[in-house]
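ugh ok fine here u go
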Amino acid sequence: MAKNGFNEAFGALLSAMKKNGSNGSNGSNGRLKIRKMPEYQQYVNEINAQNWTRQDNRLVIDTDEKDRLLRDSLALSGSVNNKRNVFYDDVPFMREKGSIGNVVHDGKPKRAKPRHSWGKTKRAEDIKYNDQKRMDVSHASAKDNRAYRLPEGSRPLKEVVAAMKEFGVYTPENFIEFQQWNIRTVDDVLAAIPPGMTAGHGKAAALGGPMTARNLWAEAKNPNYAKQHRNDAPDDVLDAIGVDRTWKITVGKYFKKIPKTESELLMTDDDIISSLASYDWETVLEQRKAQNLKLQQPPK
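structure:
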């Protein structure tokens, strides 16, 4: 089928999915309605006409047609879960063992993911393939950096000890004091996260951001999941507003070797979040100053 034909079929299916629920999940009747659509059958026929194979339990994407069809199916379904795929019932390889999100693309193991969030995925171009090895390294690094209790042998512990020695403040007692302070303040922040929100990092853990109270902020779950570390504010913005982007900065401030910025002293948590979203921390700071000045004025 011509590309514009599939564009029309994709649009018709996407509209039907919105009406009947994702993957026709608004009851069995909604699912049956979608499966009876001619556009649905066009996709099924084209998908099943391809020679789908697996390598190390990963779906091999070795033609442009396979690439387009898989990404179309993921965009329509809003998931890499096989059973949630709109074509699951009528496409044999989707019922085989192995997630359809795990692929071999350009000869490399990769993972299909939305460019933003699944809720904002409206077309095949919104799906990308991330290099699996890079993802594994990133996830391992992030997991290590989230070790805010500074366990023995962890990267955070090594960075904290190195920073303390560089600032000339290292003693076993000082380390324990800092460790307990970090555990207490991080636990306080996490306990205060409202329902429906999650803890987002000013500087992503995958990029070395520390698990400290000054690098954690409440944010909506979907933006946090989708953002990962792609939209982090530049380092100069993080430094200006007092977000601790490294363990060394946290150590330096705790032991008063690094002074706090004016923004850090004046801004509220909401101000910090606004600055992280807009990068325009100067305007946010001036607004905070004006508000503080107004509050200091005697009542008329």
